[in-house]
């Protein structure tokens, strides 16, 4: 399995390698950084693969890497939207603890079926988001202050309702973050067929959508990236997805359920930010608030919805976290906001807003996750882990700045 | 020229950026005690040249020699050049808004003893400097509390505190009204009397004619010629323009035969109060109307209420206690939000395109569609290729100079940015297009293009309201001009009736005379 990492880099080294790389560079232009960060992720993975004697990419470890870090990715999706619009949300960690507690009590004390409790948790997230969004969007208090208050408020409420711990949930609920998709299609050579099929479908969808986009562009006589660059891009991404699929199919359970949830959220929100009017308004507000107002964007409504959305995602993260732990803990979600914010910045989101992508934040979250996992396998002291993660955050943003200065160097 | 009379000599300056030769073999020679103007289109290399001179681009990053007072200079940064008495004042003023005038003057050069500020010295020295620049403000007034014109004077006082010998002013009057501009030009003259040499970069040719002793024209990174403005035959504006654009601009304004239709928009009894000081009336019972295919102008000095009038109409984005009626196509309309105004077919392109008009982080196509996303979306989902196609058409029609519509607007020149702003508002398909200073900070060639676009819009049946501080521009473009003074419309002149004098008379009319 340890070779899967190296094979992915092979295509760029093919005979036409240098010219393809050049083409890639030229056509990607501004999004080059996006690819730089993928490179960084690959380097970190390979580094830990070596440092852990190949343990990092063992199937069961990869599966639990996904399960362990699902919350960061879910929160980072919401956070990147918040930051692009020029805000920040410091409360998500406390909100996770609060909603986790409520969901737990709904199941334990009120005897609600677990799926209803899940829905209630998401709805409560929306409500919490609406509360914060109201103060930010309609009263005009800076999000930093509103969510700092929220951080205290919801942590306090979590402690009040949970006490210390609430445990003992229905099996269905616990499975959300610990279970895998049933391997309904059996095994081939000891590998889960469902996972393989899912991987194949994902790759096929990726290739088809790229070809379709290209065809539309060509039909209307619009600029497209060079064919070679597109092929190279597709090969790299297919290899990455294929590698992940291959590894996961050999894990104990196959595809973790939570991977499906995260995957669906990534696709949905990439679409929202890239292709919808709402996403466009978020970028417009973050890029130039005055211009957005004078362009007729209802900035209050958009800001409000951004926080409602963050609340919903915090609700989902709460469910995933509570399910993973098998218990609601008053101290749950500690520092989650910082993980999510760090993931966004590692992923190239601009501190001043206006720039940032879902995919970047996800890769940022994965970098943090791989660091967590790799350092844990190596049995590095948690205190050191924290220090190392802080350093990585700093270096990632510094690298970004230096890069920008060199490119825009006038 | 003997070196005694020459304070500055820049010889064969060549500065290359990756892929671009910004300056090529540029030569500049400035005499002691003169006012030397530098002219050129945007992107001609004026700012680059000044950045070489002031050490923003350190010695070694360019080729050629800089000689100041006969000695070669190898500035590594701005401090080095300031040390020698060369001070540059940029277009965007570099003052700290919440510090006092005195603190700003001595920022980085504090009156101190061992790290402790001597406030008496700071304030008394500042007061002396303020007297020299003719600014009647207390040294402990905060910068936010004074206007741009006075801020400009603070910058000059700051330069004087550094014992400036050569003062470089980059577009010093771009943001000033006529009164403040006149005061500034007087000040430059009086500094000249005290032996301070000035280099002034300006687009305003009448200003250059008024103040400069000599003018050097730069085009495409090269020195074209240095004109003696005080010679026997006066240099005409046409002559400078010709040198700047490399071709003769016989007509600074494109020809147009107006085809005026029925009235489309009318403002009645429009009164607007100041948003903070609500007792102050900013627009006072204004009445105006505009017809299809007509271009009307709003003339007024700074503070006359032109922008305030426009913004209060456009979704009440300015003002409080707004009263009056807006009538569109014979029916009264409400424009309580920008969205409502856009839906009623009103568009407003702001005077500050960078601050209020564009998302400079985003590309051309996304800026063009920003005000009418509904037209390129279905059920809230964007039609990406449709958007690119529409933007591509605007790029061709408006002649936006960029390789594609995916170029970030922050990297475009002022003229091209303005074309993006115009495209954005034309895309909303308005009936009434309000353009606030659409040619501010744009070079002569691009101005002509903007005028052509505006004419074409009027010819396509749109009503255009044109706000400008440059009277020749209003006279050259508008069919009818309203003059404003202190919030009141003091008169209305047709193209035939209007001239600079008659307009200026109306624009300076006192309140009492109007009543």
Automatic annotation (TrEMBL), chain A:
The keyword Transcription does not apply. Coiled coil: none annotated. It is found in: Cell membrane. It is a multi-pass membrane protein. NCBIfam families: GguB. Part of the binding-protein-dependent transport system for D-xylose. Probably responsible for the translocation of the substrate across the membrane. This is Xylose transport system permease protein XylH. The lineage of its organism: Bacteria, Bacillati, Actinomycetota, Actinomycetes, Micrococcales.
UniProtKB/TrEMBL annotation, chain B:
It is a peripheral membrane protein. Signal peptide: none annotated. PROSITE patterns: ABC_TRANSPORTER_1 (PS00211), ABC_TRANSPORTER_2 (PS50893). The keyword Transferase does not apply. The keyword 4Fe-4S does not apply. Residues 8-245, 265-511 form the ABC transporter domain. It is found in: Cell membrane. Its main location: membrane. It comes from the Bacteria. It holds the Pfam family ABC_tran. GO terms for cellular component: plasma membrane. CDD domains: ABC_Carb_Monos_I, ABC_Carb_Monos_II. Keywords: ATP-binding, Cell membrane, Membrane, Nucleotide-binding, Repeat, Sugar transport, Translocase, Transport. SMART domains: AAA. GO terms for molecular function: ATP binding; ATP hydrolysis activity. InterPro entries: AAA+_ATPase, ABC_carbohydrate_import_ATPase, ABC_transporter-like_ATP-bd, ABC_transporter-like_CS, L-arabinose_ABC_transporter, P-loop_NTPase. This is ATP-binding cassette domain-containing protein.
């Amino acid at each position: 399995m340890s070779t899967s990492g190296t094979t992915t880099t092979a295509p760029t080294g093919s005979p036409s390698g240098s010219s393809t790389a050049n083409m890639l560079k030229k056509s990607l232009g501004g999004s080059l950084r996006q690819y730089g960060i993928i490179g960084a992720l690959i380097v970190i993975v390979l580094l830990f693969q070596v440092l852990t004697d190949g343990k990092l990419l063992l199937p069961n470890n990869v599966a639990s890497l996904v399960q362990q870090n699902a919350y960061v990715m879910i929160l980072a999706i919401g956070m990147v939207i918040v930051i692009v619009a020029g805000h920040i949300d410091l409360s998500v960690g406390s909100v996770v603890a609060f909603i986790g507690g409520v969901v737990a009590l709904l199941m334990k004390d009120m005897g609600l079926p677990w799926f209803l409790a899940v829905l209630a948790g998401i709805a409560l997230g929306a409500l919490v988001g609406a509360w914060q969004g109201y103060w930010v969007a309609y009263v005009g208090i800076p999000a930093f202050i509103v969510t700092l208050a929220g951080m205290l408020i919801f942590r306090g409420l979590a402690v009040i309702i949970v006490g210390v711990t609430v445990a003992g949930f229905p099996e269905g609920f616990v499975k959300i973050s610990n279970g895998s998709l049933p391997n309904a299609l059996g095994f081939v050579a000891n590998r889960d067929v469902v996972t393989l099929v899912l991987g194949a479908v994902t790759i096929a969808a990726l290739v088809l959508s790229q070809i379709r986009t290209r065809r539309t562009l060509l039909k209307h006589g619009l600029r497209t990236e060079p064919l070679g660059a597109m092929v190279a891009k597709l090969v790299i991404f297919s290899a990455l997805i294929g590698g992940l699929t291959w590894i996961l199919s050999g894990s104990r359970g196959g595809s973790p359920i939570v991977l499906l949830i995260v995957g669906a959220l990534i696709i949905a929100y990439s679409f929202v930010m890239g292709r919808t009017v709402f996403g466009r308004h978020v970028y417009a507000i973050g890029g130039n608030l005055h211009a957005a107002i004078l362009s007729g964007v209802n900035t209050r409504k958009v800001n409000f919805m951004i926080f409602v959305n963050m609340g919903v995602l915090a609700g989902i993260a709460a469910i995933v976290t509570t399910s993973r732990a098998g218990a609601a803990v008053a101290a749950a979600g500690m520092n989650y906001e910082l993980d999510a914010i760090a993931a966004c910045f590692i992923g190239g989101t601009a501190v001043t807003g206006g720039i940032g992508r879902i995919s970047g934040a996800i890769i940022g979250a994965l970098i943090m996750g791989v660091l967590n996992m790799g350092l844990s396998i190596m049995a590095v002291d948690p205190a050191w882990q924290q220090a190392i993660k802080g350093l990585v955050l700093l270096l990632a943003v510094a690298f970004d700045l230096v890069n920008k200065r060199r490119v825009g160097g006038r | 020229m003997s070196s005694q009379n020459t304070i500055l000599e820049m010889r064969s300056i060549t500065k290359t950026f990756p892929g671009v030769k910004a300056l090529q073999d540029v030569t500049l020679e400035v005499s002691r005690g003169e006012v030397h103007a530098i002219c050129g289109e945007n992107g001609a290399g004026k700012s680059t040249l000044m950045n070489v001179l002031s050490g923003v681009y350190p010695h070694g990053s360019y080729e050629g020699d800089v000689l100041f007072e006969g000695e070669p200079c190898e500035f590594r940064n701005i401090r080095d050049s300031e040390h020698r008495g060369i001070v540059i004042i940029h277009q965007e003023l570099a003052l700290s808004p919440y510090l006092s005038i005195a603190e700003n003057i001595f920022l980085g050069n504090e009156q101190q003893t061992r790290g402790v500020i001597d406030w008496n010295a700071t304030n008394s020295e500042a007061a002396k400097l303020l007297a020299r620049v003719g600014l009647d403000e207390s040294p402990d007034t905060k910068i936010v509390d004074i206007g741009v014109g006075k801020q400009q004077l603070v910058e000059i006082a700051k330069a004087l505190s550094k014992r400036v010998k050569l003062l470089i002013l980059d577009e010093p009057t771009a943001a000033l009204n006529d009164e403040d501009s006149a005061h500034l030009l007087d000040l430059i003259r009086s500094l000249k009397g005290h032996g301070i040499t000035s280099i002034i970069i300006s687009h305003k040719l009448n200003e250059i004619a008024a103040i400069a002793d000599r003018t050097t024209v730069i085009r495409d990174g090269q020195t074209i010629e240095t004109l003696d403005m005080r010679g026997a035959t006066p240099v005409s504006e046409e002559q400078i323009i010709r040198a700047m654009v490399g071709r003769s601009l016989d007509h600074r304004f494109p020809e147009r035969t107006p085809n005026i239709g029925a009235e489309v928009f009318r403002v009645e009894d429009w009164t607007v109060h100041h948003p903070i000081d609500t007792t102050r009336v900013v627009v006072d019972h204004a009445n105006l109307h505009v017809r299809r295919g007509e271009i009307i102008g709003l003339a007024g000095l700074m503070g006359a209420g032109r922008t305030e009038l426009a913004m209060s109409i456009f979704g009440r984005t300015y003002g409080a206690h707004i009263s009056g009626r807006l009538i569109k196509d014979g029916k009264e309309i409400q424009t309580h939000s920008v969205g409502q105004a856009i839906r009623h077919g009103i568009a407003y392109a702001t005077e500050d395109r960078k601050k209020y008009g564009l998302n400079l982080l985003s590309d051309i196509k996304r800026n063009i569609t920003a005000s009418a996303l509904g037209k390129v979306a279905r059920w809230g989902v964007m039609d990406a290729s449709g958007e690119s196609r529409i933007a591509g058409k605007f790029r061709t029609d408006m002649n936006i100079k960029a390789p594609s519509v995916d170029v970030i607007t922050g990297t475009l020149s002022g003229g091209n940015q303005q074309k993006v702003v115009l495209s954005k508002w034309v895309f909303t398909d308005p009936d009434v297009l309000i353009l606030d200073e659409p040619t501010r900070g744009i070079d002569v060639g691009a101005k002509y293009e903007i005028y052509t676009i505006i004419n074409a819009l009027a010819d396509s049946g749109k009503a255009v309201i044109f706000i400008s501080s440059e009277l020749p521009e209003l006279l050259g473009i508008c069919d009818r001009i309203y003059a404003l003074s202190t919030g009141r419309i003091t008169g209305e002149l047709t193209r035939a009736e209007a001239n600079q004098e008659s307009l200026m008379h109306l624009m300076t009319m006192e309140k009492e005379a109007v009543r």
